[in-house]
Amino acid sequence: MHMRQLTGLIAILLCFVGVVFAQDDDVVLEDDIERPDWQQMELVDANTGETFTLGDFYGQTVFVEPMATWCTNCRAQLRNVREAIEQLTEQEIDDVVFIALSVETNLSDEDLADYTQEHEFDWTFAVMSEDLLRALVDEFGRTITNPPSTPHFIIRKDGTYTDVETGIETSDEIIEQILTAIEESAPTLPPTHEDDIMIPDNVEWADWQLIELTNAVTGETFTLADFYGQTVFVEPMATWCTNCRSQLRNVRDAIEQLEADGMEDIVFIALSVETNLSDEDLADYAATQGFDWTFAVMPPDMLRALVDEFGRTISNPPSTPHFIIRPDATFTDVVTGIESSSEIIEQLMQEAS
Q1: For position 260, what pLDDT does the model report?
Q2: Where are the domains of the chain?
Q3: Where residue 90 falls among pLDDT bands split at 50, 70, 90?
Q4: In the CATH hierarchy, which top-level class contains the domain 199-352?
Q5: How far is CA 335 from the centre of its chain?
Q6: DSSP state letters, 121-156
Q7: pLDDT at 353
Q8: Contact present, 272 and 239 (Cβ < 8 Å)
Q9: Where is average pLDDT lowest: 4-8, 84-88, 250-254, 283-287?
Q10: Which CATH class is domain 37-184?
Q11: CB-count exposure of residue 179 (10 Å: 0-12, 13-18, 19+)
Q12: First-to-last C-alpha distance (Å) of the chain
């Protein structure tokens, strides 16, 4: 079958299943995410002056610690929080957000910033508005307004949240609570805006599809889930790998052939397994080789997740591992070996339909 015939067939099939394409390649939930009012109330980071809401961190785990600058128990608890942050950073668990909220509604941002600097607390601190404090009392009870009891709770990745816990806890206990909350989270979708692709409620995302990546050339962030409704060819690679260069030249030929046939709904992404490689070095590699599609460096947690999903072959660039994410977010097994541009296109045609 000629490429133009295949193009027409795929267009008909996509119309049949009702996949809707959007200009910005973003996605949107079919039903709006329901967040309580207190997750949508504006706060101000006392140190940076930036505004935010607790709902801004959808897709991340948020540890929230109500506190007061005069509270000695709070200082003890916050020192343990600092240790927990240091341990999580060492373990490269970087999708956890820590926020301390002062219940002193009349406290100035400057005074709170001075407090954080004096005690070397270098995460986000903000003063609660009276509206937010009342909303949290309505949600969790009056314990939330009693800083010496060291109240704290966790907002899970999916926007749900735990009950309030009280009492000074060790850094290990804090980390254990956070990891439990991560395990309890339902799969989450990336933040979206209106008028884009509609995603059915029953889409099940793999964790690695939701991990943030950075386009090494443009600096734009994205996840593999952002391309729902399109076919995505994913090529793990390394800059030192000669087999990878051969395979990527064939990928370039495939892209040129598909573009010549008007196939614009296929995305190509090369992911470096060199987790310590800089974006600048990867961008230089792509430019030197004449590879002008999306290249990104995998963070360690994504590489681990892909190994868990596909096996250790994924971390062996000379075997030229690659796989395809279908328009419905399901994906193929890993295929290895250098393939011609025609073989790459044939695989894409099979999975696109």
Answers
A1: 85
A2: 37-184, 199-352
A3: confident
A4: alpha beta
A5: 25
A6: --SEEEEPPHHHHHHHHHHH-GGGG-GGG--BEEE-
A7: 65
A8: yes
A9: 4-8
A10: alpha beta
A11: middle
A12: 14
